[in-house]
Design a protein that fits this description.
Length: 584
């Protein structure tokens, strides 16, 4: 039997403490677990059975060897993931040799999905396998469950590519129709427990695909998916469907129900040894996100401008960001960090957990605790795709440094975050972070450096066409210029700020922005009249900067680690470093 890669999850050695066990009993157990369709303990069961057979002088049959390879490949994650394609391909050959043509098609489909470059070519290969599966089923040589699984794997690959198509909405509608037909194909056979697995997964995928355009239908599909999973007798929790269900509930404003779904999932997961540590961490991340309340997509106060609270997102009575959720959020995130570290299969989960835990501590005024957690993010190895995480960590770390009375440290972190944002061609975030760096430099008593940083921020705001923000940066620059070089030079800067604000008004922006620009003009004229009277640096512009969560990209039909559909990254079931799912 082919051994699992070194990074695969350790095999379950059973309760025998190394004592020999009946090979036939072990073989029967392995077969039952494989028949369950992706049972997490199947790989270990096959290894134990094969070892016991060798000790007894026997050998595993080609058919059993194929099932063992499938189970081992399904358990490949993290660094072992690249081995899955080869294992599935070998399993397919053994299934064919044993006359198990339906199983062979599933293994070949999984090998395509596990390959390094999913795309149109993979979808074409899966379409061909789907046609072959339908033909075998018509001839009575493939079961309903086997046929449904092959068809579902093709639908999963298509769903992952929806946002790359010329007309994603039309393709999503077509895929939804195919999934509805797949559900109709499997539904009459739901009395067969083997069919309930792919039926549940088909409904979960249908819920994901329909969520952006028809949330009520998505909720119905996802609730049915969770129910079918329970009826199937599969002993592991339906984590993906639960996360998706909670995500759609959050998106539709039903946050209390979403929290109930996730609390139930967390509780049942505590009692279920088959739930992976990474999924336990994801459930806690999602529950913490639900309890904390929504954030805006760009990190700015949703009301724009100063948000009515001074522009930095702070509760002036407490000097810290206003974030709901209480101590339960901190507890959930602390446990998510621990579980992600224990799992080690997807480093992104640990980074997200630390970022959220750091911001949760900061939101409660625990600046030292927050800084310690955020430093761990920056101390970890830099991987491709981590840039946004590092920007967010530095922004929060700088915020904490300001609250700890360390403006020089804050300025360094804001400047580094701004530079990293600009490297990502993210001028808007770079401008906001440059503005904050300038503010920190002014607080540190370095007016020359602060003035230059405000000038950089103004240039960046101009590059993205935000004249109001550019005018605010220039007005703040004028205060620093007055301190460093006198009122005459400050007046020149204020006149430039005035022209910038007027330029914005001529652009006929939205009514709310026009009001902000008019207010800015009033402030600039007042300061011109007072010749930049001494006072605190006016920093009512970008405020506390919260870049978007990392690992999220624009994609209407994609799913992020929290289970949110739309504007997220690769779905967790197929993202690098995660387990290749049995059906989805």
């Amino acid at each position: 039997m082919t051994s699992p890669p070194s990074d695969a999850r350790p095999y379950d050695r059973g309760r025998g403490g190394g004592e020999p066990e009946d090979p036939h009993a072990l073989l029967d157990r392995a077969r039952r677990l494989s028949a369950a369709g992706g049972h997490p303990a199947a790989g270990g069961a096959w290894e134990r059975a094969a070892t016991a057979l060798r000790r007894a002088g026997g050998a595993i049959t080609p058919a059993d060897h194929a099932d063992a390879l499938d189970a081992t490949a399904l358990d490949c994650r993290g660094g072992a993931r690249p081995a899955a394609e080869t294992l599935f391909s070998h399993a397919a050959e053994l299934h064919e040799r044993s006359g198990q043509l339906g199983k062979a098609l599933i293994s070949r489909a999984r090998a395509l999905v596990a390959g390094p470059e999913p795309g149109v070519t993979v979808c074409a290969g899966l379409a061909e396998l789907g046609e072959r599966a339908a033909g075998l089923h018509a001839a009575g040589r493939a079961t309903v469950a086997q046929t449904a699984t092959v068809l579902l794997l093709r639908c999963r690959a298509r769903a992952d590519l929806l946002d790359t198509t010329p007309d994603p909405a039309a393709e999503a509608a077509a895929l939804g129709g195919d999934l509805a037909r797949l559900v109709a194909f499997a539904l009459p056979h739901r009395a067969d427990p083997a069919v309930l697995g792919p039926l549940s997964d088909s409904r979960a995928l249908l819920g994901r695909v329909t969520a952006p355009d028809d949330p009520p239908s998505a909720l119905a599909h996802l609730r049915a998916a969770v129910a079918d999973h329970g009826a199937s007798g599969r002993p592991w929790p339906p984590t993906e469907a639960e996360l998706l269900l909670a995500g759609v509930l959050r998106a539709t404003g039903a946050r209390t129900e979403a929290a109930t779904v996730l609390r139930t999932a967390v509780g049942s997961g505590e009692e279920n040894t088959l739930l992976r540590a990474a999924d336990r961490a994801r459930l806690r991340l999602a529950l913490a996100r639900t309890l904390e309340g929504p954030e805006t997509s760009d990190g700015l106060d949703p009301r724009g401008g100063d948000g009515g609270n001074g522009g930095d997102g702070l509760d002036r009575g407490h000097g810290r960001p206003r974030r709901p959720g209480g101590e339960e959020v901190v507890s959930l995130l602390t446990e998510a960090v621990r579980l992600s570290d224990r799992s080690g299969e997807d480093p992104r989960i640990g980074v997200l957990a630390r970022l959220r835990l750091g911001s949760a501590h900061a939101a409660r005024g625990r600046w030292q605790e927050a800084a310690a957690v955020l430093e761990q993010v920056l101390a970890g190895p830099a991987r491709d795709g981590d840039e946004a995480a590092r920007v967010r960590a530095r922004a929060w770390l700088a915020f904490c440094a300001l609250r700890l009375g360390e403006p020089e440290r804050a300025a360094r972190q804001y400047a580094l975050a701004a530079a990293e944002a600009r490297l990502r061609a993210d001028s808007r975030h770079g401008a906001a972070l440059s503005h904050r760096a300038a503010h920190a430099l002014g607080t540190a008593g370095a007016p020359e450096k602060s003035a230059r940083a405000y000038e950089r921020a103004a240039d960046l705001w101009r590059s993205v066409g935000d004249h109001g923000a550019a005018a605010r940066s220039l007005r703040a620059r004028a205060r620093q210029v007055r301190t460093a070089w006198g009122a005459a030079r400050a007046e020149v800067i204020l006149e430039e700020a005035l022209r910038e604000a007027q330029r914005g008004l001529r652009g006929v922006p939205a009514p709310a922005e026009r009001e902000r620009l008019r207010a800015e003009l009033v402030r600039i004229r007042e300061e011109l009249t007072d010749l930049v009277a001494p006072g605190a640096d006016d920093d009512t512009g970008p405020g506390l900067w919260l870049p978007p969560d990392p690992y999220e990209v624009a994609g209407r039909y994609q799913v992020n680690v929290y289970g949110d559909v739309g504007g997220a990254g690769p779905p967790a079931a197929t993202a690098p470093g995660t387990r290749v799912q049995g059906c989805v």
